[in-house]
Design a protein that fits this description.
Shape: elongated
Number of helices: 28
Largest sheet: 8 strands, mixed, barrel
Helix content: 55-70%
Structural class: alpha/beta
Distance between the termini: 101 Å
Number of strands: 21
Strand order of the largest sheet: 13-14-16-17-18-19-20-21
Mean pLDDT: 84
Radius of gyration: 57 Å
Strand content: 15-25%
Length: about 850
């Protein structure tokens, strides 16, 4: 695109070079000072030479001419200074307007009175005195103005205003000249004042010239330098008058010549500042504008977008090469024509409508359109921006259009949308798109009063396939599962991959009644099960896979998306629990159980923070029923539900990780109690058993925590016994033995709790540094009624004796059980027969060392 069209765009863009405005270094060029000075010298020196050689009066007419030249130059100075391009410069120029306006007027009147009277009768009485009066004021005005200029004083306002001020001052001086002042001044000046006044003015001018010269040297300002020369010339003229007199045959023409030179230099200064330098700036601006236009033309021509400029009537004013390819014609065949001359009528009407829309608005018009290039037939999607062009008065004069090819951007946007809302492996909608569609489906069901169903699908044992055959086989299976799921439902239904091996099927527009909708969803679920139970072809072989489905209906009541997914997930969990490869519908009882568990977890967290968990102690006695110690058991006193047994919250604490702070609290309390018992001889020998979960035992730093609690409370490690469960043997047995040995070396004892109910190995029992095993109460409870339990108890007692381990029987509730255990060699007992778990205050009163506990009622 050429802006303007007469400028041909260059094919190779060049780097723009911005040339700064340089100060003028040749102040005597492009101005009349040299010509004026040469003419004055010729007019002065030649008559002076003739005068000196011949003694003839040839100066008649020369002085009036030089005074006229000085007046004209003074008026030029005023006219040039009336208007400058810069406001600050205008304020300084106003000083010259006012001062030299007065000087020029006074000099003009002085010359007219002086030289007219020489050839004609006097116009006024005392014309010579008035002429001298005005001439003196002109010299004072010149000196004053140059002084103000040297002091860099300014006069803000318009130049015309200060010209009016100069006229007013001149009129005032003329008015004063009609009175007696000129005669008095002429009498004083003619006697002894004329030459001293000239010398005083010369001194003032020399000082002003010095100031101007220093300012020029300091600021590198040519104007100040020329003003200094002009001031010097004025000073030389005054010196000539003061030294040689005002009317000598040599002094008068020489003084007038110096004044002409001074005015010429003064005009040179204002010409340079007011005309030449601004003109140079204008030339430079025009040059930069042309360069900018050329650069803009090159940039527009190099743009990959279509760029065109039309007038208000739709006629093309300029286009770039890409637009030429679109039209299929060169620029000179496009400019001057409209769209009806270049395209089809339908397309031309559309273009014209958009142009008019753009011109009617104050904002750029942006829209998308499909365009076909006439040159090569390329068709693409374009984003067009049409901006109205306005003149200085706000009138619309045309339209600037830019058409950008966004075909690739559109394709990228579609790909981004696909990646954002569709699964890359299966091509199914992903979780984000599913949630959006589910939200819309819920609203639709509420509006149409029809039901929908959400099927949560999980492949059974998919991890085993990945681990055995590799992830590439797993990806193939997922892709085939997706294909079968899509083939098994209607086109209006949604099949989405929720993540991993989880899929979700959303059924819409089911029957409005719950029973029929349930039957429809069940039929679809069975169809999915049947389809996916067929073998899959993976890398030439067959693979069988099963799936579990959780189903929930929606639409009958307003539920959130998260709530629906939660219900479907709960139903899926029930399908897994039912043996997999089946489907289960959501049951409200599931939700109630989950809610109860969630509420209990929240209450347990708060209970730990509010110290609602209490440590109770149950006595452990020997075969003579003497107190050996106690087992620390935790109880929960809920503020609303009352006392909660450990069976209700200990498993929850294990699952949620709350067992760690809970176990730490029990251990800390037990160590504190051991320290209190150690203060009295009767209780110093008692021990306390603390249950430790496998999760707590395996946490990093467990050994250090136990030793820290013992040390911080000053408890005897030999009186602390840690009870471990058999589930601990399923982990890293070597790490378990190492931890036990480390604590054992410090004196801490170990007991294996609930022996016989879990996973036990004789080799492990032999390697573990145990001190005691505890027979589970499930064996003790039926020891008199079940021969198998009696045999197990006898075997455990025999095994413990062979391994040199102490034995404590748990759950002893009757004297018959006690007698049986004593008969077969058991030496430690714990149960309701000897005491229930109670707080330490009750325990201390009810149980004292050496005292035989009284049998209590059963549970």
């Amino acid at each position: 695109m050429s802006l303007p069209s007469s400028i041909e765009p260059a094919r190779e863009p060049s780097k723009p070079v911005r040339t700064p405005l340089r100060p003028v270094r040749e102040p005597l060029s492009d101005a009349p000072v040299v010509t004026v000075a040469a003419a004055v010298l010729a007019l002065v020196l030649l008559p002076l030479a003739q005068r000196l050689s011949a003694g003839v009066d040839v100066l008649h007419g020369l002085e009036p001419f030089m005074e006229l030249v000085a007046v004209l130059l003074g008026l030029l100075v005023v006219s040039v200074s009336l208007r400058t391009f810069e406001r600050q410069e205008q304020a300084r120029a106003n000083v010259l307007v006012a001062g030299f306006g007065v000087a020029a007027a006074c000099n003009l009147l002085h010359g007219m009175l002086l030289h007219f009277d020489a050839a004609h009768p006097p116009l006024l009485a005392g014309s010579a005195d008035i002429s001298l009066w005005l001439s003196s004021w002109a010299r004072v005005a010149e000196v004053t103005t140059l002084w103000f200029t040297a002091m860099r004083l300014s006069a803000p306002g318009l130049g015309r205003t200060w010209l009016a001020v100069a006229c007013a001052i001149t009129l005032a001086l003329v008015g004063l000249s009609l009175g007696p002042l000129p005669g008095w001044f002429a009498q004083v000046a003619g006697s002894a004042l004329h030459q001293p006044l000239a010398l005083a003015l010369a001194l003032a001018l020399i000082v002003a010239a010095t100031v101007l010269q220093r300012s020029a040297r300091r600021n590198d300002q040519p104007r100040e330098r020329i003003l200094a020369w002009a001031t010097t010339a004025f000073a030389c003229g005054e010196i000539t008058v003061g030294a040689l007199g005002a009317h000598g045959s040599v002094a008068s023409p020489l003084a007038h010549g110096l004044r002409v030179i001074a005015y010429a230099l003064l005009y040179q200064a204002v010409f340079d500042a007011g005309i030449r330098r601004p003109f140079a700036r204008i030339q430079e601006a025009e040059s930069r504008l042309r360069e900018s236009e050329s650069r803009l033309a090159r940039v527009v021509s190099a743009m990959p977008d279509m760029v065109f400029l039309k007038d208000a009537d739709g006629v093309y004013l300029s286009v770039n090469p890409v637009f030429e390819r679109f039209i299929g014609r060169p620029e000179h065949q496009i400019v001057g024509r409209n769209d009806f001359d270049l395209t089809t009528p339908a397309q031309a009407r559309q273009f014209r409508q958009n142009d008019q829309r753009a011109m009617q608005t104050r904002q750029p018009l942006v829209y998308e359109e499909t365009l076909t290039f006439a040159e090569d037939g390329y068709q693409g999607r374009f984003e067009t921006i049409k901006t109205p062009i306005r003149d200085l008065h706000g009138r619309v004069t045309g339209v600037l259009g830019v058409c950008r090819d966004i075909t690739e951007r559109k394709r990228a946007a579609q790909e981004i949308e696909r990646l954002a809302f569709y699964d890359a492996l299966t091509g199914l909608p992903n979780r984000r798109l599913l949630l959006d569609r589910l939200q819309r489906s819920i609203a639709t069901c509420q509006r149409t009063h029809k039901l929908g169903a959400l099927l949560f699908i999980d492949l059974d044992n998919f991890k085993d396939l990945n681990d055995t055959l590799g992830h590439d086989m797993g990806d193939q299976l997922l892709a085939q599962v997706a294909t079968r799921l899509v083939a098994s439902v209607r086109a209006a239904d949604t099949v989405a991959r929720f993540g991993g091996d989880e899929f979700v099927v959303m059924l819409e527009a089911l029957a409005p009644d719950l029973r029929s909708a349930t039957a429809q969803a069940e039929m679809v679920a069975d169809k999915l099960l049947a389809s996916l139970n067929q073998p899959f072809a993976l890398d030439g072989g067959q693979h069988y896979s099963t799936l579990s489905i959780g189903v929930t209906l929606f639409g009958e009541q307003r539920l959130s998306v998260d709530e629906l997914l939660k219900r479907a997930d709960l139903a899926l969990y029930q399908a897994k629990a039912a043996g997999r490869n089946t489907q289960r519908f959501f049951d409200p009882d599931m939700q109630a159980a989950v809610n109860a568990r969630s509420n209990l977890e929240a209450d347990l967290r708060q209970g730990l923070a509010r110290a609602e968990l209490l440590v109770y102690y149950q006595p452990v006695v020997d075969h003579r029923a003497r107190l050996m110690g106690a087992e620390a058991l935790v109880r929960w006193r809920h503020p609303q539900r009352g006392m909660i047994g450990p069976a209700d919250f200990i498993p929850l604490a294990e699952q949620t990780g709350l067992i760690l702070p809970l176990g730490q609290y029990v251990l800390q309390t037990a160590c504190a109690q051991l320290q209190r018992w150690s203060r009295h001889p009767d209780t110093a020998g008692l021990s306390i058993s603390v249950n430790v979960s496998a999760r707590q035992f395996r946490q990093p730093g467990f050994v250090a925590q136990v030793l820290h609690q013992l040390k911080s409370h000053g408890a005897d490690p030999r009186r602390l016994k840690l009870e471990l469960t058999e589930s601990l043997l399923l982990g890293d047995i070597e790490d378990t033995i190492a931890r036990m040995a480390q604590l054992k070396s410090e004196g801490v004892g170990f007991a294996l709790d609930d022996f016989g109910t879990g996973y036990s190995s004789l080799s492990y029992l032999k390697r573990l540094p145990l001190d005691q095993i505890k027979i589970d109460q499930s064996f003790v409870r039926e020891v008199l009624a079940d021969p198998n339990d009696a045999a197990i108890v006898r075997t455990i007692l025999a095994l413990a004796k062979s391994l040199d381990l102490q034995v404590v029987a748990e759950g002893v509730e009757t004297t018959g059980q006690l007698s049986f255990l004593q008969l077969h060699g058991c030496e430690g007992f714990q149960g309701y027969l000897f005491g229930r778990p109670v707080p330490m205050e009750v325990f201390a009163c009810a149980h004292r060392p050496g005292k035989m506990p009284q049998p209590q009622a059963g549970p």
